[in-house]
Amino acid sequence: MDAACTAEQDEIRRTLREVVTKHCGPDDVKAAVRTPAGYDTGLWAALAGRLGLPGLALPEAYGGIGCGTLELALASEELGNGLAPSPLLATAGLAAPLLLALGTSRQRTALLPRIATGELTATLAVPGAALATALGLVGDNRGDWSGGGRAGGVQARVVADTWRLYGQVDQVLDGHSAGLLLVAAHTGGFARSRTLLFLVRGDAPGLVRVRQTALDETRPRARLELRDVEGELVGDGSGVVHALGDVGERVAALLAAEAVGSADRALARTVAYVKEREQFGRAIGSFQAVKHRLADVYVRVQAARSAAYYAAWAAGEGGMPPGSDGSGAADAYERVGGLALAQGLDALRTAAAEAVQLHGGIGFTWEHDAHLYFKRASGDELLFGPAHRLRAYAAERAGLFAGEGAEGPPETAEAAPAVRVDGVDRSRPVDGAGV
């Protein structure tokens, strides 16, 4: 991986930073989240119409720009820097890649160009609080998270050659405003249980959408009630679980980059404040204890940025092993998105906590915007984590612990590959201790 950004990537970052700095001050963000849409529609029109952000990673054949996950991650980092509320994550991170991977030629041609221009926003709806599981971030997404043939979730059945959906979905990102919903529903009964994806129009008869109160107002969510709602099957119904896992890797990289942008901004605001705030006749930033705390945050942010960039690169062609056919299958990639997301969330939580602490009395007030960063970190952990589960599942897939790997650990110690840290073989116990 080449860590240096290209001229095109630098231009994407520079342009977006100008827009975000101009339109996403603390007061602007607080005003935007209280609108019916939950975001600044004028800003979204500029991001979509003038900059083509929703189509940044879509092929040119569907009206997109033809860039990759890394460019979209760089854009997400800049939006995270200003905590900009927008439907980008739900539309370009979740829904569009699923349509591209699973949709029929007719569905892709009809919907993706509208998504690329920002005319149509979309989101993914999965039952309960199972979004992280459905995306394969904290558990095997081949389970029964969509209902499993039992009560709950969303059920789908054919009535007069038309798919009808019935059920309820909570915690849907931008579910109250999205013009198109990709709903994961269970069908086939208990004996032939399987999960399918369906296209549901935002104004479909029988669909009730209620915006919910969320810890993080910059991530608006909704509860969907589907009462015999008509849905259109996405593609031929095959490969849903595989595609969700693939999209999960990309979304994790985008979220990690976004968290890095937010953490970087929280740190910068805190550094600026401790240079001005005086105590005992000197700036508090001159005290060694404060310097050490902020230095630790800086190291965390830089490490998280490196991890996020690598995850975004690995989620594209850069992470595909030699000889891969380039089909985009989830298991054709080096799966590091969950680890990058865990590191990004940790960095943001630490940066936000230090911002609250080092701002002193004003850091605890609703009037100050330090709480916005802390709530972004906590909200993302609730929806896509938490960090310890992201790491645990990554370790399980990698087979770091005996009997827990997806492919299983080596049969014998002699067959185990050497694990070297600083040039020392750590694959075997030392002095009777485990690794």
Automatic annotation (TrEMBL):
Write out the entry's keywords from A to Z.
Answer: FAD, Flavoprotein, Oxidoreductase
Q: Which organism is it from?
A: Streptomyces lasiicapitis
The cofactor named in the record is:
FAD
Q: Which domain of life is it from?
A: Bacteria
Designated name of the protein: Acyl-CoA dehydrogenase
Give every Acyl-CoA dehydrogenase/oxidase C-terminal domain span.
253-397
Bias (Low complexity)? 404-418
Q: Domain Acyl-CoA dehydrogenase/oxidase N-terminal, which positions?
A: 6-119
Task: Enumerate the residue ranges of region (Disordered).
Answer: 404-435
Keyword hit for ATP-binding: no
Pfam families from the UniProt entry:
Acyl-CoA_dh_1 (PF00441), Acyl-CoA_dh_N (PF02771)
User: Which Gene3D superfamilies does the UniProt entry name for this protein?
Assistant: Acyl-CoA dehydrogenase/oxidase, N-terminal domain (1.10.540.10), Butyryl-CoA Dehydrogenase, subunit A, domain 2 (2.40.110.10), Butyryl-CoA Dehydrogenase, subunit A, domain 3 (1.20.140.10)
Family label: Belongs to the acyl-CoA dehydrogenase family.
